[in-house]
Design goal:
binds fe (ii) ion; two-stranded parallel ribbon; mainly alpha; disordered N terminus; single chain
């Protein structure tokens, strides 16, 4: 019917199996860590809270939530052209991010078993949640006649090694930002049901509670290791992780603003809201948060957006590789300068509040 439906919009490795998106600095990462250090961690300072969280995971509130009902039983050819393309990209990115959580938590559950039983069980139960999330998204892709080969992804992707402390910073933030992303879309579509182009969004309300609980677990585990939070290094690293997570999301989303537009959202406004909320939330555990209201913050991000547009333009040009690199260089340098400027904006000290704002 529509032109774009005749030929696949994406490269396929086998019929119906989408070739994974090219790995870049902006695509979701896969992590690995020092399992022995994690196993030896003494959690006694905050063990009561961790056990309470484990009880919550055992209850499994969303056991019956992820069921594809009759709303999905129709043709989705009405989502076509550019909207279809960005929509599939959204599903793929989300699926890859959820699956990356699944792999890490599953491995942690396996490696800590018998050594740190409370943590081992929590990780195993969180991997159960992430498997559901990833599976649900992969089923959604099948509504668009595609799927991801998650087994292949497991073997072929590069894994980033982070010490446990950094795994906690990174996963804490990705869970909390995930929560704010999902709930913000859900609340928006609740107000504007005419923009709900596909039923997956109505699942986000309960879904994001999983992410919120996962984030609360990382909050509690970091509080059981005060040495991860209470020195000057922790303040520098908190800023670094907050900035990388916010900048990555902003650059990704602005580049895909047509996806958000198809839901009736302005990508920039959406991201600013999610960044503000995640930053506030992070203040419950991190010793510092970013001054995201500082006028220089979004100015610098916008310069990076423009740089990235230029970089894509150069990458898609026909120039020889060496020339491309030369042309790209000033934009890489500019991105570096802008990120550094953002990093150096005076942060907001919140360590006196940590643990009290609940
Ligand atoms: Fe998830
Ligand atoms: Fe999660």
């Amino acid at each position: 019917m529509v032109d774009s439906l005749k030929k696949p919009q994406f490269e396929e490795v086998r019929p119906g199996v989408k070739a994974p998106a090219e790995e870049t600095i902006l695509t979701p990462r896969f992590y690995t860590t020092d399992f022995d250090e994690m196993a030896k961690m003494d959690i006694s300072v905050n063990e009561d809270e961790l056990r309470a969280i484990l009880e919550e995971f055992r209850i499994d509130y969303n056991r019956h939530h992820f069921v594809r009902d009759e709303q999905f039983q129709k043709s989705w050819d009405s989502i076509s052209g550019e909207t279809r393309k960005v929509f599939i990209e959204f599903l793929e990115r989300s699926c890859t991010a959820e699956f990356s959580g699944f792999l890490l938590y599953k491995e942690l559950g396996r490696r800590l078993k018998g050594k740190n039983p409370v943590l081992a069980e929590i990780f195993t139960l969180m991997s159960r949640d992430e498997a559901r999330h990833a599976g649900f998204l992969n089923k959604a892709l099948s509504d668009f006649n595609l799927s991801l080969d998650l087994g292949f992804l497991t073997k072929s992707r590069k894994y980033t090694f982070f010490k446990p402390k950094f795994i906690f910073y990174a996963t804490y933030l990705s869970e909390k930002i995930g929560y704010w992303r999902y709930i913000t879309i859900f609340r928006h579509l609740e107000q504007h049901p005419e923009n709900e182009i596909y039923p997956i969004f109505s699942f986000f309300e309960n879904w994001c509670q999983d992410e919120n609980r996962h984030g609360d677990f990382f909050d509690a585990i970091m509080k059981s290791q005060p040495q991860f939070l209470n020195d000057w290094k922790a303040r520098l690293w908190s800023r670094f992780f907050l900035l990388s997570v916010f900048a990555t999301m902003y650059l990704n989303d602005v580049q895909r603003s047509s996806f958000y537009a198809s839901l009736g959202l302005d990508a920039r406004e959406y991201d600013k809201h999610v960044i503000k909320k995640t930053n506030e939330t992070a203040g419950r555990v991190f010793p510092v948060v970013l001054d995201v209201e500082h006028p220089g913050f979004y100015q610098s991000l916008e310069t990076c957006v423009t740089n990235n547009e230029k970089l894509t333009e150069i990458a898609n040009s026909n120039a020889p590789a060496a020339i491309k690199l030369l042309r790209k260089l000033p934009f890489y340098v500019s991105n570096g300068v802008e990120l550094l400027k953002m990093y150096l904006i005076k942060p907001i000290r919140v360590d006196n509040l940590a643990g009290t704002v609940r």
